[in-house]
Amino acid sequence: MRSLSPRVQALGAAGVCVVVAVAAGLAVDGRLDRHWILRGLTLLLALGCATLLLTDQSRRLRQIVTAIGLVMFGLVIPVTQTLWSKPPEIEFALQVATDAKNAAEKGARSAVSVADVKAAAEARGGAVGSLPTERNPQVRGADAYPLIVRAKSDQGRPWACLSFEHGLEAKVRPC
Fold this sequence. Notes:
Blueprint lengths: L5 H21 L9 H17 L7 H24 L4 H19 L7 H10 L3 E2 L18 E4 L8 E8 L2 E6 L1
Antiparallel strand pairs: 1-2, 2-3, 3-4
């Protein structure tokens, strides 16, 4: 059985890395930051490992390093970034954003109000704004966008920031 030439191996590995990187980036909810810069740097490292396949593969150590680099930078890191893009507080904020958008659409409004977001968060058992403490008694992020959304009304952190910049289009990010 004939083995593939180094050039075909390198092109195949590079193609798989590009497909995995783009698919993993697009799998993240569009309302979240997809971290394209970090994903691009990871892809460049994977492509660098793929180009190592073009060089002489006579040393076993070089083959091992190339294989580990391809697996890590081409598969593990992009997939892990995608899976970890929605911690519970971000997932809660996305659900609140969907509920608030639905309330605005039901009310025939072209923009989501702060009251819509507060009602959606409270209906899901959460709250809007930072939790007042002895050290900082003033509530922040409860009156204007970006709003601080907490999954539990009695818990200060973790939280997420939610804003509606263009009417009904939500943006969620950690804050």
